[in-house]
Specification:
- There is one protein chain.
- The protein has 345 residues and is α+β, with helices and mostly antiparallel strands.
- It folds into two domains: 10-166, GAF domain (Beta-Lactamase), CATH 3.30.450.40; 182-341, Alpha-Beta Plaits (2-Layer Sandwich).
- Helix content is 43%, strand content 22%.
- The protein is built from eleven helices and 13 strands.
- The chain has helices at residues 10-20, 29-42, 77-80, 102-106, 141-162, 165-173, 176-181, 192-208, 223-249, 273-288, 316-332; strands at residues 46-52, 56-63, 69-71, 87-89, 112-119, 125-133, 212-220, 255-260, 263-270, 292-293, 298-299, 303-309, 338-341.
- The strands form three sheets. A six-stranded antiparallel β-sheet has the order 3-2-1-6-5-4. It has a five-stranded mixed β-sheet with strand order 8-9-7-12-13, with helices on both faces. The protein has a two-stranded antiparallel ribbon with strand order 10-11.
- Strand 5 and strand 6 (125-133) form a beta hairpin.
Protein backbone atom coordinates (compact mmCIF):
# COMPACT_ATOMS: atom_id res chain seq x y z
CA UNK A 1 0.00 0.00 0.00
CA UNK A 2 1.21 3.48 -0.82
CA UNK A 3 2.03 5.79 2.06
CA UNK A 4 -0.54 8.59 2.28
CA UNK A 5 0.36 12.00 3.70
CA UNK A 6 -2.01 12.97 6.48
CA UNK A 7 -3.03 16.49 7.50
CA UNK A 8 -1.60 17.67 10.81
CA UNK A 9 -5.15 17.88 12.15
CA UNK A 10 -6.25 14.50 10.76
CA UNK A 11 -8.09 13.43 13.93
CA UNK A 12 -10.15 16.62 14.06
CA UNK A 13 -10.67 16.53 10.31
CA UNK A 14 -12.02 12.97 10.41
CA UNK A 15 -14.31 13.83 13.32
CA UNK A 16 -15.69 16.75 11.32
CA UNK A 17 -16.35 14.47 8.35
CA UNK A 18 -18.09 11.92 10.60
CA UNK A 19 -20.28 14.64 12.11
CA UNK A 20 -21.39 15.69 8.65
CA UNK A 21 -23.15 12.30 8.24
CA UNK A 22 -22.78 12.32 4.46
CA UNK A 23 -20.66 9.22 3.95
CA UNK A 24 -22.65 6.33 2.46
CA UNK A 25 -25.78 8.37 1.81
CA UNK A 26 -27.83 8.53 -1.41
CA UNK A 27 -26.86 10.75 -4.31
CA UNK A 28 -28.05 14.36 -4.12
CA UNK A 29 -29.69 15.98 -7.19
CA UNK A 30 -28.22 19.40 -6.32
CA UNK A 31 -24.65 18.07 -6.13
CA UNK A 32 -25.22 15.98 -9.24
CA UNK A 33 -26.23 19.18 -11.03
CA UNK A 34 -23.00 20.86 -9.91
CA UNK A 35 -20.77 17.99 -11.01
CA UNK A 36 -22.63 17.69 -14.31
CA UNK A 37 -22.10 21.41 -14.86
CA UNK A 38 -18.39 21.03 -14.03
CA UNK A 39 -18.12 18.01 -16.33
CA UNK A 40 -19.66 19.91 -19.25
CA UNK A 41 -18.01 23.26 -18.53
CA UNK A 42 -14.46 21.92 -18.35
CA UNK A 43 -14.93 19.09 -20.89
CA UNK A 44 -13.22 16.49 -18.70
CA UNK A 45 -13.89 12.78 -18.35
CA UNK A 46 -14.59 12.95 -14.61
CA UNK A 47 -16.08 15.53 -12.22
CA UNK A 48 -16.52 14.47 -8.60
CA UNK A 49 -17.48 15.59 -5.12
CA UNK A 50 -15.05 13.50 -3.10
CA UNK A 51 -15.10 12.93 0.65
CA UNK A 52 -11.74 11.74 2.01
CA UNK A 53 -12.45 9.08 4.62
CA UNK A 54 -10.03 7.10 6.81
CA UNK A 55 -8.78 4.66 4.18
CA UNK A 56 -10.85 5.55 1.10
CA UNK A 57 -12.17 8.41 -0.94
CA UNK A 58 -15.93 8.14 -1.34
CA UNK A 59 -17.78 9.97 -4.08
CA UNK A 60 -20.89 11.80 -2.92
CA UNK A 61 -21.48 12.84 -6.54
CA UNK A 62 -19.78 11.52 -9.67
CA UNK A 63 -19.83 12.09 -13.40
CA UNK A 64 -17.79 9.86 -15.70
CA UNK A 65 -16.81 7.30 -13.07
CA UNK A 66 -18.58 4.05 -12.18
CA UNK A 67 -16.81 3.33 -8.88
CA UNK A 68 -18.50 4.49 -5.67
CA UNK A 69 -15.15 4.72 -3.88
CA UNK A 70 -11.42 4.12 -4.37
CA UNK A 71 -8.54 3.65 -1.91
CA UNK A 72 -7.21 6.77 -0.25
CA UNK A 73 -3.73 5.53 -1.06
CA UNK A 74 -4.45 6.03 -4.80
CA UNK A 75 -5.86 9.50 -4.44
CA UNK A 76 -4.85 12.96 -5.56
CA UNK A 77 -7.67 14.26 -3.36
CA UNK A 78 -5.83 13.05 -0.24
CA UNK A 79 -3.00 15.38 -1.32
CA UNK A 80 -5.40 18.22 -2.17
CA UNK A 81 -6.79 18.40 1.39
CA UNK A 82 -3.29 19.06 2.77
CA UNK A 83 -3.60 22.70 1.70
CA UNK A 84 -6.26 25.39 1.47
CA UNK A 85 -5.09 26.06 -2.09
CA UNK A 86 -6.27 23.99 -5.04
CA UNK A 87 -4.12 21.14 -6.30
CA UNK A 88 -3.61 21.51 -10.06
CA UNK A 89 -1.75 18.78 -11.95
CA UNK A 90 -1.71 19.56 -15.65
CA UNK A 91 0.28 16.44 -16.54
CA UNK A 92 1.15 13.88 -13.86
CA UNK A 93 3.82 12.37 -16.12
CA UNK A 94 5.94 15.53 -16.09
CA UNK A 95 4.78 17.33 -12.92
CA UNK A 96 7.84 17.28 -10.66
CA UNK A 97 5.67 16.50 -7.62
CA UNK A 98 4.21 13.31 -9.11
CA UNK A 99 6.21 12.19 -12.19
CA UNK A 100 7.49 8.66 -11.68
CA UNK A 101 5.61 8.11 -8.41
CA UNK A 102 3.46 5.09 -7.70
CA UNK A 103 0.42 7.37 -7.61
CA UNK A 104 1.00 8.59 -11.17
CA UNK A 105 1.82 5.09 -12.44
CA UNK A 106 -1.20 3.47 -10.81
CA UNK A 107 -3.78 6.07 -11.88
CA UNK A 108 -3.34 6.36 -15.67
CA UNK A 109 -6.90 7.69 -16.05
CA UNK A 110 -5.90 10.73 -13.98
CA UNK A 111 -3.15 12.38 -15.95
CA UNK A 112 -4.82 15.76 -15.49
CA UNK A 113 -6.24 16.65 -12.06
CA UNK A 114 -7.68 19.82 -10.53
CA UNK A 115 -9.07 19.59 -7.00
CA UNK A 116 -10.42 22.38 -4.82
CA UNK A 117 -10.59 21.57 -1.07
CA UNK A 118 -14.03 21.62 0.57
CA UNK A 119 -14.24 22.64 4.24
CA UNK A 120 -16.78 22.57 7.05
CA UNK A 121 -17.88 25.70 8.89
CA UNK A 122 -14.77 25.50 11.10
CA UNK A 123 -12.37 25.31 8.17
CA UNK A 124 -11.61 21.58 8.44
CA UNK A 125 -11.04 19.87 5.08
CA UNK A 126 -13.65 17.27 4.17
CA UNK A 127 -12.75 16.47 0.58
CA UNK A 128 -12.71 18.16 -2.80
CA UNK A 129 -14.61 19.21 -5.85
CA UNK A 130 -12.29 17.75 -8.46
CA UNK A 131 -11.82 17.30 -12.19
CA UNK A 132 -9.82 14.49 -13.79
CA UNK A 133 -8.97 13.38 -17.29
CA UNK A 134 -6.66 10.80 -18.90
CA UNK A 135 -5.22 13.49 -21.20
CA UNK A 136 -2.92 16.30 -20.02
CA UNK A 137 -4.20 19.85 -20.40
CA UNK A 138 -3.41 23.41 -19.46
CA UNK A 139 -5.59 24.98 -16.77
CA UNK A 140 -5.96 28.73 -17.13
CA UNK A 141 -6.47 31.28 -14.38
CA UNK A 142 -10.01 31.82 -15.67
CA UNK A 143 -10.74 28.09 -15.36
CA UNK A 144 -9.27 28.15 -11.87
CA UNK A 145 -11.70 30.94 -10.93
CA UNK A 146 -14.64 28.99 -12.32
CA UNK A 147 -13.66 25.89 -10.36
CA UNK A 148 -13.39 28.04 -7.25
CA UNK A 149 -16.93 29.35 -7.77
CA UNK A 150 -18.33 25.84 -8.16
CA UNK A 151 -16.40 24.66 -5.10
CA UNK A 152 -17.84 27.56 -3.09
CA UNK A 153 -21.37 26.52 -4.05
CA UNK A 154 -20.59 22.89 -3.21
CA UNK A 155 -19.06 23.72 0.16
CA UNK A 156 -21.94 26.01 1.14
CA UNK A 157 -24.51 23.38 0.19
CA UNK A 158 -22.76 20.69 2.25
CA UNK A 159 -22.87 22.97 5.27
CA UNK A 160 -26.55 23.74 4.73
CA UNK A 161 -27.32 20.04 4.41
CA UNK A 162 -25.56 19.34 7.68
CA UNK A 163 -27.88 21.76 9.42
CA UNK A 164 -31.09 20.54 7.81
CA UNK A 165 -33.84 18.66 9.60
CA UNK A 166 -33.57 15.88 7.03
CA UNK A 167 -29.95 15.28 8.05
CA UNK A 168 -31.00 15.22 11.70
CA UNK A 169 -33.64 12.60 10.95
CA UNK A 170 -31.13 10.46 9.07
CA UNK A 171 -28.61 10.65 11.90
CA UNK A 172 -31.26 9.55 14.37
CA UNK A 173 -32.48 6.70 12.19
CA UNK A 174 -29.32 4.98 10.95
CA UNK A 175 -25.70 4.45 11.83
CA UNK A 176 -23.11 4.73 9.08
CA UNK A 177 -22.68 0.95 8.92
CA UNK A 178 -26.43 0.51 8.57
CA UNK A 179 -26.51 3.11 5.81
CA UNK A 180 -23.67 1.38 4.00
CA UNK A 181 -25.63 -1.88 3.97
CA UNK A 182 -28.71 -0.13 2.61
CA UNK A 183 -27.06 1.77 -0.24
CA UNK A 184 -26.89 0.44 -3.79
CA UNK A 185 -23.31 1.16 -4.93
CA UNK A 186 -24.13 1.47 -8.64
CA UNK A 187 -27.02 3.93 -8.53
CA UNK A 188 -26.24 5.45 -5.11
CA UNK A 189 -29.89 5.00 -4.11
CA UNK A 190 -31.30 3.12 -1.15
CA UNK A 191 -31.56 -0.60 -1.94
CA UNK A 192 -34.43 -2.97 -1.06
CA UNK A 193 -33.28 -3.16 2.56
CA UNK A 194 -33.46 0.64 2.63
CA UNK A 195 -36.96 0.53 1.13
CA UNK A 196 -38.16 -1.84 3.85
CA UNK A 197 -36.50 0.31 6.51
CA UNK A 198 -38.05 3.59 5.37
CA UNK A 199 -41.54 2.26 4.61
CA UNK A 200 -42.85 2.30 8.21
CA UNK A 201 -41.03 5.58 8.95
CA UNK A 202 -42.60 7.30 5.94
CA UNK A 203 -45.99 5.82 6.79
CA UNK A 204 -45.78 7.19 10.35
CA UNK A 205 -44.66 10.61 9.10
CA UNK A 206 -47.49 10.75 6.58
CA UNK A 207 -50.01 9.98 9.31
CA UNK A 208 -48.59 12.70 11.58
CA UNK A 209 -48.82 15.21 8.74
CA UNK A 210 -52.33 14.02 7.81
CA UNK A 211 -51.11 12.99 4.36
CA UNK A 212 -51.24 9.75 2.37
CA UNK A 213 -48.25 7.56 1.62
CA UNK A 214 -47.88 7.07 -2.11
CA UNK A 215 -45.89 4.23 -3.67
CA UNK A 216 -44.57 4.41 -7.23
CA UNK A 217 -43.15 1.31 -8.90
CA UNK A 218 -40.91 2.13 -11.89
CA UNK A 219 -39.50 -0.35 -14.37
CA UNK A 220 -37.24 0.63 -17.28
CA UNK A 221 -38.74 -0.51 -20.57
CA UNK A 222 -36.94 -3.11 -22.71
CA UNK A 223 -33.90 -3.08 -20.43
CA UNK A 224 -32.72 -6.52 -21.53
CA UNK A 225 -32.39 -5.07 -25.02
CA UNK A 226 -30.14 -2.33 -23.61
CA UNK A 227 -27.77 -4.90 -22.09
CA UNK A 228 -27.85 -7.06 -25.23
CA UNK A 229 -27.11 -4.11 -27.52
CA UNK A 230 -24.77 -1.97 -25.44
CA UNK A 231 -23.29 -4.47 -22.98
CA UNK A 232 -23.47 -4.41 -19.21
CA UNK A 233 -21.39 -1.23 -19.00
CA UNK A 234 -24.00 0.50 -21.13
CA UNK A 235 -26.77 -1.00 -19.02
CA UNK A 236 -25.08 0.16 -15.83
CA UNK A 237 -24.86 3.69 -17.20
CA UNK A 238 -28.57 3.68 -18.05
CA UNK A 239 -29.39 2.54 -14.51
CA UNK A 240 -27.14 5.26 -13.05
CA UNK A 241 -28.55 7.98 -15.31
CA UNK A 242 -32.14 6.84 -14.66
CA UNK A 243 -31.51 7.05 -10.91
CA UNK A 244 -30.20 10.62 -11.33
CA UNK A 245 -33.24 11.66 -13.35
CA UNK A 246 -35.71 10.07 -10.96
CA UNK A 247 -34.09 11.75 -7.96
CA UNK A 248 -34.13 15.08 -9.77
CA UNK A 249 -37.82 14.73 -10.65
CA UNK A 250 -39.08 14.18 -7.11
CA UNK A 251 -38.96 16.33 -3.98
CA UNK A 252 -36.12 16.31 -1.42
CA UNK A 253 -38.24 14.51 1.17
CA UNK A 254 -39.22 11.68 -1.19
CA UNK A 255 -37.41 8.35 -0.83
CA UNK A 256 -36.04 6.87 -4.07
CA UNK A 257 -34.91 3.23 -3.98
CA UNK A 258 -33.63 0.59 -6.36
CA UNK A 259 -35.68 -2.50 -5.67
CA UNK A 260 -33.46 -4.70 -7.84
CA UNK A 261 -32.48 -5.04 -11.49
CA UNK A 262 -34.13 -2.26 -13.49
CA UNK A 263 -36.94 -1.77 -10.95
CA UNK A 264 -37.22 1.26 -8.68
CA UNK A 265 -39.67 2.21 -5.93
CA UNK A 266 -40.40 5.76 -4.74
CA UNK A 267 -42.10 6.61 -1.45
CA UNK A 268 -43.81 9.98 -1.42
CA UNK A 269 -46.16 11.75 1.02
CA UNK A 270 -49.06 13.30 -0.90
CA UNK A 271 -52.56 14.67 -0.39
CA UNK A 272 -54.36 12.56 -2.96
CA UNK A 273 -54.25 10.45 -6.11
CA UNK A 274 -53.88 13.48 -8.38
CA UNK A 275 -50.72 14.67 -6.63
CA UNK A 276 -49.27 11.16 -6.73
CA UNK A 277 -49.92 10.88 -10.48
CA UNK A 278 -48.34 14.30 -11.08
CA UNK A 279 -45.13 13.11 -9.42
CA UNK A 280 -45.20 9.88 -11.43
CA UNK A 281 -45.64 11.87 -14.64
CA UNK A 282 -42.62 14.04 -13.79
CA UNK A 283 -40.58 10.87 -13.37
CA UNK A 284 -41.82 9.43 -16.66
CA UNK A 285 -41.00 12.63 -18.54
CA UNK A 286 -37.59 12.95 -16.88
CA UNK A 287 -36.62 9.55 -18.30
CA UNK A 288 -38.21 9.90 -21.73
CA UNK A 289 -37.69 13.59 -22.55
CA UNK A 290 -33.97 13.50 -23.36
CA UNK A 291 -31.84 10.70 -24.85
CA UNK A 292 -29.14 9.15 -22.69
CA UNK A 293 -25.59 9.55 -23.90
CA UNK A 294 -23.69 6.26 -23.88
CA UNK A 295 -20.02 6.02 -24.79
CA UNK A 296 -20.66 5.24 -28.45
CA UNK A 297 -24.40 5.73 -28.84
CA UNK A 298 -27.47 7.76 -27.97
CA UNK A 299 -30.32 5.88 -26.31
CA UNK A 300 -33.98 6.86 -26.00
CA UNK A 301 -35.12 5.19 -22.79
CA UNK A 302 -38.63 5.04 -21.36
CA UNK A 303 -40.13 3.79 -18.11
CA UNK A 304 -43.44 2.25 -17.03
CA UNK A 305 -44.93 3.15 -13.66
CA UNK A 306 -47.52 1.73 -11.26
CA UNK A 307 -48.91 3.82 -8.39
CA UNK A 308 -50.87 3.13 -5.23
CA UNK A 309 -51.90 5.01 -2.11
CA UNK A 310 -51.52 3.13 1.16
CA UNK A 311 -54.99 2.51 2.50
CA UNK A 312 -56.06 2.93 6.11
CA UNK A 313 -55.42 -0.33 7.97
CA UNK A 314 -53.69 -1.72 4.87
CA UNK A 315 -50.28 -3.37 5.17
CA UNK A 316 -47.43 -1.78 3.27
CA UNK A 317 -46.73 -5.18 1.69
CA UNK A 318 -50.21 -5.23 0.19
CA UNK A 319 -49.90 -1.65 -1.07
CA UNK A 320 -46.59 -2.53 -2.73
CA UNK A 321 -48.27 -5.51 -4.35
CA UNK A 322 -51.04 -3.28 -5.73
CA UNK A 323 -48.49 -0.83 -7.13
CA UNK A 324 -46.62 -3.73 -8.72
CA UNK A 325 -49.84 -4.97 -10.32
CA UNK A 326 -50.47 -1.47 -11.70
CA UNK A 327 -46.97 -1.52 -13.16
CA UNK A 328 -47.78 -4.84 -14.81
CA UNK A 329 -50.84 -3.19 -16.44
CA UNK A 330 -48.70 -0.28 -17.63
CA UNK A 331 -46.27 -2.71 -19.25
CA UNK A 332 -49.05 -4.57 -21.02
CA UNK A 333 -50.85 -1.36 -21.95
CA UNK A 334 -48.01 -0.21 -24.19
CA UNK A 335 -45.21 0.92 -21.80
CA UNK A 336 -44.01 4.49 -21.22
CA UNK A 337 -47.16 5.14 -19.20
CA UNK A 338 -48.51 5.25 -15.64
CA UNK A 339 -51.31 3.16 -14.12
CA UNK A 340 -52.99 3.72 -10.75
CA UNK A 341 -54.21 0.94 -8.46
CA UNK A 342 -57.29 1.99 -6.46
CA UNK A 343 -57.59 0.76 -2.88
CA UNK A 344 -60.68 -1.40 -2.38
CA UNK A 345 -60.64 -1.25 1.42
Amino acid sequence: MLSVPLPANETERQQALDRLELLDTPADPYLDTLTRLAHDLFQVKMALVTLVDRDRQWFKSRQGLDAAETPRSLSYCSRAILSDEPLIVEDSQVDKRFAGTELARNTPDVRFYAGWPLHDANGLALGTLCLADPKPRLFSSQERDRLHDLAYLTESYLQLQHNSQQADDLRDALSREQRKGMLDPLTQLWNRAGLLHFLPLEQATAERQQLRLGLIYCDLDHFKRVNDTHGHDGGDHVLWESARRMSGAVRPQDVVTRNGGEEFVILTRVHDEQELLQIAERIRQAIASQPMQLEHAELHQTVSLGCALLGSDESSANALKRADQALYRAKHGGRNRTEFAPCHH
